[in-house]
Amino acid sequence: MIKKTVADVHKALAGVESGMTLMLGGFGLCGIPENAIAELVRLGVNNLTCISNNAGVDDFGLGLLLQEKQIKKMISSYVGENDEFERQMLSGELEVELTPQGTLAEKCRAAQAGFPAFYTPAGFGTEVAEGKETREFDGKMHVLEPAFKADFAFVKAWKGDEAGNLIFKGTARNFNPCMCGAATITVVEVEELLPAGSLDPNQIHIPGIFVQRIFQGEKYEKRIEQRTVRTRNNA
């Protein structure tokens, strides 16, 4: 069985260069590849195009790359929690391509499946459809959306084995699965790395065929984006 393991995050990100297009899994701060993002900051690569549902917050997640001006373009669905993102976008320092959330996920999944493009009704009649081919199906207009093309996909999983088979946990099973195999190289960091063949095949969410590199992550903060609590009633 082919082993996909690499020793650490430094080896996992070998080949990442300035100017590349990167996919990064996660939803808000849930299930983000914290180790990979920290290594991108350390490497100092810049002029990056980042595909991610969110752009992190000011001092965590992709917000760390924004602070260092390493991102040239963000392709996202929702970016409302990051003041630095807003500042760079409004000042023209950052190019932004806002994409409907379902379309963003499908553009990843299409790339994963090897489809060059797909039609969707989302965005027709809006700025999203400007300059794109449109076509009517069953009396409803659709927009032709191309699949993403990315150099690296950085994914966070709960458990994985040395062959690259993955299990995601809870809400972290968001954009991570559809980004596996959607780039030239998929790099996965896991909370628990197990010997090949030790995962129950019926529990595997993504097979190892979609993964090129996998490593044991460490020191996960799992920060809560907006902590909300209620006052406990007096007994």
Keywords:
235 residues; alpha/beta; 11 strands; 8-stranded mixed β-sheet; globular; 3-stranded antiparallel β-sheet; 27% strand; 6 helices; Glutaconate Coenzyme A-transferase
Radius of gyration: 18 Å
Largest sheet: 8 strands, mixed
Overall number of strands: 11
Order of helices and strands: HEHEHEHEHEEEEEHEE
Give me the CATH architecture, please: 3-Layer(aba) Sandwich
Structural class: alpha/beta
**CATH topology grouping:** Glutaconate Coenzyme A-transferase
CATH C-level class is Alpha Beta
Mean pLDDT score:
94
Number of domains: 1
- Share of β-strand residues: 25-35%
State the low-pLDDT regions, or none.
Answer: none
Give the name of the CATH superfamily.
Answer: Glutaconate Coenzyme A-transferase
Overall 3D shape: globular
**Oligomer status:** single chain
GO molecular function: transferase activity
Pfam families: CoA_trans
Keywords: Transferase
InterPro entries: 3-oxoacid_CoA-transf_A, CoA_trans_fam_I, NagB/RpiA_transferase-like
Short description:
The protein has 235 residues and is an alpha/beta fold.
SSE arrangement:
Blueprint: H1 9-12, E1 21-24, H2 34-43, E2 48-51, H3 63-67, E3 71-76, H4 83-91, E4 95-98, H5 101-113, E5 117-120, E6 134-137, E7 140-146, E8 150-161, E9 166-167, H6 176-179, E10 183-194, E11 213-216
Parallel strand pairs: 1-2, 1-8, 2-3, 3-4, 8-10, 10-11
Antiparallel strand pairs: 5-7, 6-7, 8-9
